[in-house]
Write a structure and sequence with these properties.
Layout (H helix, E strand, L loop, with lengths): L1 H17 L3 H5 L2 E8 L5 E2 L1 H9 L6 E13 L2 E11 L6 E12 L2 E11 L1
Parallel strand pairs: 1-6
Antiparallel strand pairs: 1-2, 3-4, 4-5, 5-6
Length: 117
């Protein structure tokens, strides 16, 4: 079940990343989300939107869930391998750890941490 939850969250994230829609990506995060991409971290949706707005058009993300844990009824921890593909440079493989939290009837990302392989 936790894998299904994380798949739903990451499928929606991937669709917004692939479409280069930074505001839509940011809406998938909690208001107080801790976000650590490959640049200095930020807190909140504005930082997430700015990060993805700065990414090149044509960038896409493919992920594979490696592990999930249901930490509480409304909290899921996930670990995934992600490959960011670009139109003008080699694919970038990374590790992604996320914490998804149920907020009302939606699951949102409360913590996002990327590290290079």
């Amino acid at each position: 079940m936790s894998t299904d939850i994380l798949s739903t969250v990451l499928d929606t994230w991937k669709a917004a990343v692939d479409a280069h829609e930074p505001e839509r990506v940011a809406e998938l995060f909690t208001e107080d989300a801790i976000f650590q991409g490959l640049h200095p971290y930020s807190v909140g949706r504005a930082g997430v939107a700015a990060y993805y707005d700065a990414q090149p058009r044509g960038m896409t993300a493919d992920y594979r869930i490696v592990e999930t844990r249901r930490l509480a009824e409304d909290v899921v921890l996930g670990y995934a391998g992600v490959e960011f593909a670009f139109t003008d440079r080699p694919t970038l493989p990374v590790h992604l750890s996320v914490v998804a939290r149920r907020t009302g009837d939606r699951w949102l990302i409360a913590h996002y941490q990327v590290s290079r392989l």
